[in-house]
Specification:
Blueprint lengths: L1 E7 L1 H10 L3 H5 L7 E3 L4 H10 L9 H4 L2 E2 L4 H4 L2 E4 L1 H11 L4 H11 L3 H7 L4 H24 L3 E7 L9
Antiparallel strand pairs: 1-2, 1-5, 3-4, 4-5
Helix pairs in contact: 6-9, 7-9
């Protein structure tokens, strides 16, 4: 599975929601702003985020997003979004997660079968460095979205690759 996030102005998101008929329309949306490829270890980061507690927020939404872009069966489960207001709340909660907490989690769980399975053939030390970088990039991505008052779109599906990175 591949996972990508991109930020988009609220009015452009509305247009995308009205116009998108398939995944290709969403992947090639002309008004995407910042974009981030979450790499191979995004399921591990998603698991870590979902275990973090935050008042009335599900940090799972940072990667999977809360609302479907369309009710179309082929799009509903793979293309989702967080509105700008939710992006702001999620960013505030994300900023509370420190690199040290992430590293502590990695060290504690590096030998458990579930985490090892999610990490595949990578070495634990490289995975920790990659997850740390991914967390830092995710924070930067969300900060930029907040500064621009943008929504965030999440694409999670097999074999999706951006045509170009912005």
């Amino acid at each position: 599975m591949d996972a990508f996030l991109f930020s988009i102005a609220p009015n452009d998101l509305e247009s995308l929601m009205l116009d998108a008929e398939n995944m290709r329309d969403i992947e090639q949306a002309p008004y995407k702003q910042d974009q981030i490829d979450l790499g191979e270890l995004w399921p591990v980061l998603a698991k870590i985020l979902s275990q973090q507690s935050s008042a009335n927020l599900n940090l799972h939404d940072l990667i999977y997003a809360e609302y479907p872009i369309s009710e179309h069966p082929k799009i509903k489960s793979v293309a989702r979004y967080n509105p700008a207001v939710h992006v702001m709340e999620l960013t505030q909660a994300l900023e509370q997660i420190s690199v040290e907490e992430l590293q502590k989690y990695c060290r504690k769980h590096q030998h458990t079968s579930e985490i090892a399975q999610l990490m595949g053939d990578h070495t634990a030390q490289l995975d920790e460095a990659e997850l740390t970088l991914l967390l830092t990039q995710l924070k930067s991505f969300y900060r930029n979205a907040v500064e621009q008052n943008h929504a965030v779109v999440s694409l999670i599906a097999e074999n999706i690759r951006p045509k170009h990175l912005i």
